[in-house]
Specification:
The structure is a single chain. By secondary structure, the chain is mainly alpha-helical. It has one domain (about 1-130). The protein contains five helices and no strands. The longest helix is centred in the middle third of the chain and has 36 residues, at about 55-90.
Length: about 130
């Protein structure tokens, strides 16, 4: 989540080579994806391993939030990223800043707002965990 909010904008603002900045950001997103998947699976396992839960509704909300965040990760990485990679490959040496590819790439980046949605769900998850007994 932090890559979309902090790292990627910093890379593009700092590096003059936008292709290099994009490549580094892509690699960071890949690592972040697998870390997110690991954390989600761990949280679900911990949630399910509870022998009891005093507030079943609250625990169900936590589970739904965790699964929704995992879905955002999976959609972003396995859904949007392949389209972006194919667009970069198709653009070739002219890059994605060529007029015909720029619009499509911009739309795909707009859909990447899933990172923001996921970040907001993470804040809600933390607040819910703090108020639950699960």
């Amino acid at each position: 989540m932090d890559g979309w909010l902090l790292v990627a904008p910093t890379l593009f603002a700092t590096l003059s080579d936008r292709v290099l900045a994009g490549s580094i950001a892509g690699n960071l997103f890949r690592v972040e994806t697998w870390l997110s998947i690991f954390c989600a699976v761990t949280l679900v396992a911990l949630q399910k391993s509870q022998a009891y839960c005093r507030n079943a509704t609250q625990c169900r909300v936590l589970l739904i939030l965790i699964c929704a965040m995992l879905a955002c990760t999976l959609i972003s990485h396995f859904g949007l990223q392949p389209f972006m990679a194919a667009l970069r490959e198709k653009a070739g040496v002219s890059g994605v800043m060529a007029p015909n590819a720029k619009v499509q790439f911009g739309i795909l980046h707009g859909l990447s707002a899933l990172y923001l949605t996921q970040s907001l769900m993470g804040v809600v998850l933390i607040l819910k965990i703090r108020e639950t007994d699960c």
